[in-house]
Structure formats: C-alpha cells, structure tokens
Amino acid sequence: MKQEKTKLGKFEMQLLAYAQLRKKEFISSGEIASALDINAEQEWKLLNRMATSGLIIRLKRGAYLVPSRMPAGGRWTVSGYYILSKLMEVIKGRYQISGPSAFHFYGFDDQVPNRIYVYNDRIFGEKEIGGIDFVFIKTDVKRLGSTKHLKTTDGIDAVMVTKTRAMVDAVYDWSRYNTLPRAYAWIVATLKKEPVIGENLVGDTLQYGNKGTVKRIGYLLARLGIADDRLRKMKRRLGPIRSLIPWIPGQAAKG
After folding, report:
1. What is the C-alpha to C-alpha distance for residues 211 and 173, in angstroms, rounded to an integer?
2. Which end of the chain is more exposed for a tag (fewer CB within 10 A), N or C?
3. What residue ranges do the domains of the chain occupy?
4. What pLDDT score does 229 carry?
C-alpha cells in the first residue's frame, strides 16, 4: 500500500527552514520556541508531532536530529548506524557495535539481528530511536577497543569491532548472547581460514577478556595446537589456577 505523504504545516516548514538555513544537524528544546516565537507547549507539540511523523528524529530528551533537506515523501529515512553515530556525538560517548550485529556482519551467524548491539561508556538499556531498536551495553572505557571503521551508505564511519574482538565478545558475553559452544566453532573455522589473526585473537583476549574468557579461549587454542609462546602469555595472565570452570556452561567444570 502506498504510504500517504506527510503534510507540512506552517510551523513544520518554518522549523525545517530554520535548521537548513543555519546548517544545523541538531536542534534542542527551547531554541525552537524562541526562533519561531511560540510558547513552550506549542514547541513541545510541534517537536513531538514532527518526530512521530518521521520528519525529524528524537535522539534523546530535548535533542533532535534534523535532515539537511526536505525528506522525499515527507518522511526521513536513515540507517541505524547513522542514528547511532549522531546520538553518540550528542552525548559525547565512545561506542562500538558488537554482539549479534557483529556476528552477522562477519558471517558467523546467518540470522539478521533486529536490533543493533552497542558497547559504550554512556548509556544502557533497550531504546527505540527513529524506528530502530538498539541495545546499549554500558561498559568501562578500558573495555572499548579493537575496532574498525565501516563506511555506510549515509556517509557515516560507523565503529564496528574487529573480527577477533567479536569472537572474544561471543565468549566473554556468552550468557547475554547464548553463544557457547557456537563461538568455539566460529573461532576454529576462522583460524583455519585466517591463521595469521591468531596473534590478534590472543591480544584481544588478554586485553578485553576476563579470566573465564582467557581460560576458555586458551584451552581451545591449546587443543588446536597453537604455538606455546602465545599460550604462555595467557598462562601468565591467569597465574596459579585454583578453580575450574565449565567448558560449555551447564556441563561439568574442566579446562
């Protein structure tokens, strides 16, 4: 069914013209009331109406993303990566895309995720922004890293984790993503095709994993016959091992 074109009223047109003439990507509550000479209630209703109809995107309370030109058909459509990049610009956060989004991107999992999973240092929880569902996982800035830039069709450089970091996250956050023992198969297949990234996998495991992650990936690498010098780094990180953990959660402890 053909979507009905959004009709623009006087204030909608004035708001878009105001932003476009000033080349503003973002507008905030308070400035529009002053610019259009309307009261706070009128401003709130206008912004809410435009966000609901898809003319602008509400990033967070009081902050909105505005198109650089009038959207075709009256509804502005951008990628989730674009929205994410602009949100992090507004809240001054560091982020990286991982979880099922990265697992699918690297071909580990065929299932297309219906949400974008974001590790960041500012916000947490599930949020719907601009019609896109996000899962924000707040983490210490020390656990952010091992990323690559992904150029999107919107011209945005989205921050995606590297392939080795995605594998580490699959083991580290297995309870969140239900990725064990599948992640072990991903690691084995990847190292078989790209043995040169083994060093990066060890490095990411040591830098971004906890002891459980180091134990599990270290045990897997030992089974694969990885060079002893790499395993020694992992053994030094662990120190004396006084307890065992399950190789596969829910089964007997070993490793």
Report:
1. 13
2. N
3. 10-74, 79-161, 176-255
4. 81
User: CA–CA distance from 130 to each of 19, 41, 45, 52 (Å)?
Assistant: 18, 22, 17, 9
CATH of domain 10-74: 1.10.10.10
Give whole-number Cα distances, 151 to 92, 102, 109, 157, 161, in Å. Answer: 20, 15, 21, 5, 13
Token output for 246: 């399950």
Q: What is the pTM of this model?
A: 0.90
Question: What does the pLDDT read at residue 1?
Answer: 43
Residue 113 DSSP label: P
Q: Do 192 and 206 form a contact (C-beta atoms < 8 A)?
A: no
- Contact predicate 126/135, CB 8 Å: yes
The Cα–Cα gap between 124 and 138 comes to 5
In whole angstroms, what separates CA 115 from the centre of its chain? 9
Position of tokens 């945005």?
156
The angle at the Cα of 52, spanning 44 to 153, to the nearest 5 degrees, equals 120
The predicted structure's pLDDT at residue 6:
59
Residues of the chain with pLDDT under 70: 1-7, 251-255
